[in-house]
Amino acid sequence: xxxxxxxxxxxxxxxxxxxxxxxxxxxxxxxxxxxxxxxxxxxxxxxxxxxxxxxxxxxxxxxxxxxxxxxxxxxxxxxxxxxxxxxxxxxxxxxxxxxxxxxxxxxxxxxxxxxxxxxxxxxxxxxxxxxxxxxxxxxxxxxxxxxxxxxxxxxxxxxxxxxxxxxxxxxxxxxxxxxxxxxxxxxxxxxxxxxxxxxxxxxxxxxx
Length: 208
Fold this sequence. Notes:
Strands 3-2-1-4-5-6 form a six-stranded parallel β-sheet. By secondary structure, it is α/β, with parallel strands linked by helices. The protein is globular. It has helices spanning about 15-30, 55-65, 75-80, 85-95, 105-110, 120-125, 140-145, 150-155, 165-175, 185-195, and strands at about 5-10, 35-40, 70, 100-105, 125-130, 155-160. The chain has a single domain, classed as Rossmann fold (3-Layer(aba) Sandwich).
């Protein structure tokens, strides 16, 4: 049985904050590897700038190729449509029923779990790996989720250094002609430059 972490997102583009989160979850939670799971369509908000799912997948694959502890799952991309977590987890269980899955989220996302589609099914299908931050304690999160079956057994917390990098910030810098080296992996910076991505002005505000 493999212990597999899942880090979902638009990865538009993937940046060093994503990779630090994947690394800290893997090390602190004792995971064998972490899969980046690019969404096909985010279920709750439209993407500000969409270069195309093929580009987002290619950037994730370039990142994973440089680190054997990372991989990419196309479960959401293959299914198409809005990418709800419960559907992602069911698809991954169907592909590898023997794996123990840990779905990696930030503390703010964990706090919102009761509003997700079938939150108790999510907890049944995977452990919830929660990146703990100073602004939202594990006690706050545990109390918020206390009404969900399994929440007392299925939460795993790990420490995450504060890294204020977002995909929207990266896109704005690129649109303004500013460098993004040291903010994204070199393979991602090279891919963006080769493909001419994110050259149109990106809207101000919002995080991804």
